[in-house]
Amino acid sequence: MGTFKLLATDGSARAGELHTAHGTLLTPAFMPVGTQATVKSLVWDDVKAMGYDLVLCNNYHLYLNPGCEYIAQMGGLHKFMNWDGMILTDSGGFQVFSMATLAKIKDEGVHFRSHIDGSKHFFTPEIATRAQELLGSDIAMVLDQPVAPGATYQQTKEAMDRTHRWAERCKACHTREDQQLFAIVQGGFEPELRRISAETLAEMDFPGYAIGGLSVGEGKALTWSNLEACIKYMPEDKARYMMGVGSPEDLFEAIDRGVDMMDCVLATRIARNATLWTSYGRINIDRPIYKGKDEPIEEGCDCYTCRTFSKAYVNHLFRNKELTAYRLASIHNLRFLKRIVIGARQAIFDGRYSEYKKAFLDNYQVVNEKVRLDQKQRYLDRKAKEQA
Amino acid sequence: MGTFKLLATDGSARAGELHTAHGTLLTPAFMPVGTQATVKSLVWDDVKAMGYDLVLCNNYHLYLNPGCEYIAQMGGLHKFMNWDGMILTDSGGFQVFSMATLAKIKDEGVHFRSHIDGSKHFFTPEIATRAQELLGSDIAMVLDQPVAPGATYQQTKEAMDRTHRWAERCKACHTREDQQLFAIVQGGFEPELRRISAETLAEMDFPGYAIGGLSVGEGKALTWSNLEACIKYMPEDKARYMMGVGSPEDLFEAIDRGVDMMDCVLATRIARNATLWTSYGRINIDRPIYKGKDEPIEEGCDCYTCRTFSKAYVNHLFRNKELTAYRLASIHNLRFLKRIVIGARQAIFDGRYSEYKKAFLDNYQVVNEKVRLDQKQRYLDRKAKEQA
C-alpha cells in the first residue's frame, strides 16, 4: 500500500512517515489515548499545542457508548469530536479480554458483558471491522486475542492462531479506502510463536503491523525479548506499532528496537494521580516537599504548565483536588513524551540515537520494577473498589 | 478615596469604573469565584478569554490551606496563582458561619473549626484583615456576621451591630495602600436594620460597600426588598457590591436596583452538574434528548465551547463523566454571564436598560423557586454525604 515511508535508520531505530487520510505522522511517534473520544481532562487545542496530530480512540468503549452507528450518523468520529487530525482506533480485542467480564471465546467471535452495565455483546472480526469503519478512523486494528502473562504454550498458540484467522477475516471484510487496517502480532511470551505470528501476518500483506499482548504486566525483560523475537520478522517497509507503551524509558527501548508508533494511557493516568515525569525521574507533585517551590515542574520544559505555573501552585491544586490539576499534569506528561520522540527522530537522522538514549537514561531514575507493579496493583484495586 | 467613578445612570442602574492596583473594572461587573486560588476546572487564560479581569478568592479557604503567611512568602496571591488581573478577597465571615462548624462568636472574634479537618481557629477583624493584606488582594472585605433566614430581629440586630463594630476595627488596622477595604452592609431580612446598616457604614467612609447576607436561601421577594431597603442609603460615589448573586435573572434585578458588582459560584457549580444557561432558560445537557444534536449549546454563543463542540459531544462527555465536560460547561456559563453584564453596561449608557432587561426576561424561562430550592437542598445533602 505504500503508506509508510522509511526515511532513515540508526542501528535498528527507524525514522519515517506514515501517510493517512487526515495527515502525515512523523515517526517514531507516541499517540495520546482518547479512550472515549476525549483525551481525559483535555481539549484538542491542548493536544495540538503539545504537537500531537494523531490520537488513539477505543472501539470497545465507543461501541458500547455512545455507539458506532450513532457516531456514523453524527458524521463520523472526527466530526463528532471535532478533531481534524489523525485517529487510530483499537479494535477492542484487548479491552474485551481485560475490561469486559465473562468473555467467552469461540472461533466465530467473542461473547462478553459490558464493564459498564453488564449488558451482553458479541464481537466478531467482521463486527469490529465494521464498527471501526463506522467510526471512520484513519487507522483501524484487526480484532485479536491477546493472552495474559502466565498463559500456557498451548493457550498462547491457540490465541495466536485465532488472531491470524481473525486478521484474515478482518482484511476480507474491510472496505473503506480512506482507512488503513493494521494487523496485530501476538504470541504471548513465547519467542518462537512471536516469530511465527510476525511471519504469518507479514505474508497477508497488511498496510501496517502492531505488536500486541506485550507490556501488559509482565517484567520488562520479557517485554523486550518478545519484542525482539518478532520485530525482525516484520516487514521493513510497513509501520510497526507497539501497543501499550508507555513510560519514558520504554519509549527509548521500543524505538531502539525498531518500533515506529506507540500509545499508552500511562502519561495521563499517572498525571491524574499527581505523578509527573522529569528528566531525572518521576516526581509526585502532591508531596509536601513541593510546597514553597517557586519554580516550574521542570526547568526548561516548554509545556504550558511549566511555562505558566510553579510546583507550589500545582501542589496546591492537587492537595485540594482541584480539577485544573488533572489538566495541567496531563499536559506536562504528554508534552514530556512528545519531546522524547521529537528528539529521537532527529537523533536517528543524525545517526546518534544510542547517545541520545544513553544521555537520557543516564540522567533518568527508572522506577524500581517492584514499586511500579505494586503501584499498578494499587491502582487496579482502587478502580475495582470504585466500580464495585 | 475616589476609586470608583460613576459614569452613567439609567433609572437606578449604574455604569461606572473601579480603579484598583491591578487594573480598572468596568461596571456593572460579575466576578467569577476562584475559591481556592483557582476557578474550578479553568486556567487564567480561560478566564481572560471570557473577558474577565477580576476574580474573587476566599480568605477563609486560603487561610486554612495553604495559609496566608505562606502565600505572602510566595510573593502574594497574584504571583502564587499567576494571575495579573484584579483579585477581590472575601473576609471569610460568610464561610465561618456557613461552612465551618461550631462557630462560637464573641465580640472579640469568632472561634470555629475547619470544615476540612476540624482544627480550631480564631478569626478577629484584625486577623481577617491582616490575612487579606498578606494575600495582597486588590479589594479586601471586612469581617462581618451574616444571619441566616429565620433569625429573630434581636439576633439580626446584634449581628449587625457587631458587623459595624468589626468594620471599624478592620478599617483601623488596615494599612495596605494598594488594597481597598470594602465594608459589608448587614441587617438580615429586616428592612429597617438594612437602612441603619447602610447609613452607619456610609458614615465610616469606606472606599466601597458590599451588601451581604442576602441571596442565602431566602425567597427572591425578600432578597430584592431588603436590597432596596439599604441600597438607596449607600453612597452614590462608591462601588456597590452585592455578594452571592447569581443567576442570569438575578443579575438583571440587581443591576436594575443599582448594584455595580456581583459574584457567585452558581455559574460554575451548576455547570459541573451539567446545567447550562441559554437565552431561553436552563438546560441539562446530560439529558438523553441532547444525544444526536449537532448544534452548539446556544446558537450564536461566542464562548469557546459553543464555537468548538456540539451539544451531542458535550452530552457524551457528561454522560461518561469525562473531566473535560466540567471545563467546557464552566466556560459556557461564565461567558453567558459576562455577555449579560457587557450588554447591561452598554444599555445603561444608551438609556435603554429597562428594554434590555425586558427583552432578556421575556425570553428566559426562570426556574421555579421551589424547584430551585429543592435542587439546592439536594446539592447540599450530597455534599454533606460526601464529607461525612
Terminal residue distance of chain A: 47 Å
Number of helices of chain A: 16
What Rg of chain A do the Cα atoms give? 20 Å
Task: Count the beta strands of chain A.
Answer: 16
Question: What is the second-level CATH architecture of the largest domain in chain A?
Answer: Alpha-Beta Barrel
The class by helix and strand makeup of chain A works out as alpha/beta
Side by side, the strands of the main sheet of chain A go 4-14-13-12-11-10-6-5
* Total separate domains of chain A: 2
Q: What is the CATH H-level superfamily of the largest domain in chain A?
A: Queuine tRNA-ribosyltransferase-like
Mind telling me the CATH class of the largest domain in chain A? Alpha Beta
In short:
Two copies of one chain form a homodimer. In chain A, 45% of the residues lie in helices and 19% in strands. Chain A is built from 16 helices and 16 strands.
Overall description:
- The first copy, chain A, is α/β, with parallel strands linked by helices.
- The first copy, chain A, folds into two domains: 4-264, TIM Barrel (Alpha-Beta Barrel); 271-370, no CATH class.
- Chain A has 16 helices and 16 strands.
- In chain A, the strands form four sheets. An eight-stranded parallel sheet of chain A has the order 4-14-13-12-11-10-6-5.
- The longest helix of chain A has 27 residues, at 323-349.
- The radius of gyration of chain A is 20 Å and the shape is globular.
- The mean pLDDT of chain A is 95.
- Chains A and B meet through helix 13 and helix 14 of A and helix 13 and helix 14 of B.
